[in-house]
Amino acid sequence: MATECEAWLNSNPVEVDNLSDSFLSGDEEKAGSRPVDNEVNGNWISAPSIHEVRVKAKAKRRLRKNSSRDSGRGDSLSDNGDSIRGLQAPPTSPKSKLLDRKSRLGKGRGLPKKGGAGGKGVWGPPGEVYDYEEVDVKDPNYDEDQENCVYETVVLPLDERDFEKTVTPIMQEYFEHGDTNEVAELLGELNLGPMRSGVPTLAVSLALEAKASHRELTSQLLAALCGRVLTLADVEHAFDGLLRELPDLVLDTPDAPQLVGQFIARAVRDQILSKSYIDSYKGKVDCEHARAALDRAAVLLKMNRGGRRIENLWGSGGGQRPVTQLVREVNLLLKEYVLSGDVVEAERCLRELEVPHFHHEFVYEAIVMVLESKGEKTFKMVLQLLKFLCESSIITVDQTRRGFERVYSDIAEINIDVPSAYSALEQFVEKSFSAGIIDKSVKDLCPYRGRKRFVSEGDGGRLKPESY
Fold first, then answer.
1. What would you report as the CA-atom Rg of the chain, rounded to the nearest whole angstrom?
2. pLDDT tier at 362 (50, 70, 90 boundaries)?
3. What is the pLDDT of residue 139?
């Protein structure tokens, strides 16, 4: 049998490495000099074939190669060279084998490179704080002038087009919230440059087309900005531009000359415009609109306006005005109406108050004026005014009802000063119901005072005590 194997090997040469671990290694090379013991327990066993020897040698080499890196996991081999599935140990890395940073050579501890700070675009490990790095004087790129450099954000100055786009929304928002400090902060962040004088010009131009309360807010804003964002020269330059632009402003706002004159008078009173500003234009103005504006300002500064100061020239919005001031304005409006009898002017003045939520006070004061008056003239004029305002929907039904109910609740106190208040109120309520000012539900709420009667006949004319 040995002779047959040797003959087969001579005809099929095999590399020495492939048979290094086979039965021909070592002492087994001397098999030809001594007989091979193929007997086990009296039974003859045939010698292994060369194919089985090669398979076993290959399996042993694979087992030695994988033992260093795949020990305890993967496939193992049985004694016969068959592949068997052993117990697999869980991988040390939670990542897949494709993304695992563990060395493929079996070296290292399996930790990520650079402590997790490696990779493209990574500045360092998480949580690392970089301290201030001192400048190295011996650095070839060192420049001594760089130590004294101060870096600041440069804001380019606004041109005319960007100025209107940026400042106009700020002014429109200011008309809603009325906070001058916020406007000053927003304008302070801008680089206005030569466009500083355009701020008053733009503000006044927008206020000319707005309400009286917005004009009052504009005057307050100009006074607040002067010294913080604007200078006196900027304000004077702005009003010079407004006087030159009056022919164009009149096309959109016919009463622009009078309004600009009032702005000039208010600016002089707020001390943001010099008192000699108006005098500097005497004999130098050719435009009739500019002359009208300057004349209006001069008149306002000289006249007393019935004790009304120029600070309250525009008035203020209802939400910003105290109640006591609103009550005075309503009383003044009613007195002027009784003297003039102009219903349209009274309606205009009531609109300019801009207090639709406070019209019940107007109804209340009007009825109290009727109760305190002794003639029929006030009775008829107030009734005519309330009818006109209710028909034109200036005063709503709810405000009218609330005004009458306030009079009903205070009639007992009013009667102390006006003894005939009950009878006068009954007559006015009847006339108001006939004119359509109030409905039947408001009429039925009117309090009535019982008549005084004698205690009994022959009691000497003594009256019963009053009871309500």
1. 53
2. very high
3. 82
